[in-house]
Amino acid sequence: MDLLVVGAGEIGRWVADTVSADAAPVDASVAFADRDPTVAADAAAGRDARTVDADGDSVHDAVCLAVPMSAVPAAVEAYAPRAEEAIVDVSGEMTDALAAMRKHASDLERGSYHPLFAPPRVPGNVAAVVDEGGPAVESLSAAIEAGGNDVFETTAAEHDEAMETVQAGAHAAVLAWRLAAEPVREEFHTPVSAALDDVADTVTEGSPGVYAEIQRAFDGAEDVADAAADIAAADDEAFAALYERARGDREGRDRLE
C-alpha cells in the first residue's frame, strides 16, 4: 500500500511507524506531506519514507489525514482527489470529518480513527468508525491492531459525546486544579493530590494548541465549572447530596466497564 500521511507531527509519525512496522500485516510505502516542508523532511528522515508536495498532485492508494480537527473538512476536500482507494483521518473528531468524506470522497473507502493516547504512551485504545469498508481500510485497522493497540468500533455520535467527558471535561478539571493549586511541600501531598499532580504533569507536557482544539471542538468544560461552583456553594446537606450523586455516577461507570 502506498500511503500518504498528511501532517507530519507526532500522530502522523505514529501512523507511519505503525503501518511500516515489521509486525504490520501490510507492505506499506509511506509519503509525508506537510504545510511546512522541513517538518515533512524531518519525519521522513530516519524512516523508510519520502516526502511529497502538500499542494502537489501525487496520487496514492490511501490518504491518512493527521491534521488538526478544525482543518479536517478542508483537508478532505483537498486530498480526496489524491486517493485511489481510501481516505481516513486520525484527528480526534468524527462527525464533521466523516461528513466531509461522504461529500468529497463518496467513491472511496472511508474511516475515522482516534488514538486515545499520546504517541509516547503507545500502545493503547483506538476508537474507529469504518464508514465505507474495503481492503485498504481493513489493512490499516489490522496494522494498528498488530501494533498492540485495541481497536474498538463506535459511532461518530457516541465518540464525540464521549470526548466531552474524557477529553474536554477531564482536561478542564485537571488544568483548573493545577491553576488554582498553591505549591506545597512533597510531604503534604495526599494520595488524591499526588495523583492529580501527576495527571496535571501529563496534560501540560503536550501542545497547548492541541488542547485548545479539543476545547473548541467539544463541550464539557462548562459542566465542570458548573459542578465546581455547586460544590463551592453547597451547605452540608447539599454537599452530601452531591457526594452521593458522584458515588452513584462511579458505580454506574463501574457497571459499564
From TrEMBL:
This is Prephenate dehydrogenase. It comes from Halorubrum sodomense. It comes from the Archaea. Keywords: Oxidoreductase. The keyword Cell cycle does not apply. The keyword Oxidoreductase applies. GO terms for biological process: tyrosine biosynthetic process. PANTHER family: PREPHENATE DEHYDROGENASE, PREPHENATE DEHYDROGENASE [NADP(+)]. One of its GO terms (molecular function) is NAD+ binding. InterPro entries: 6-PGluconate_DH-like_C_sf, NAD(P)-bd_dom_sf, Preph/Arog_dehydrog.
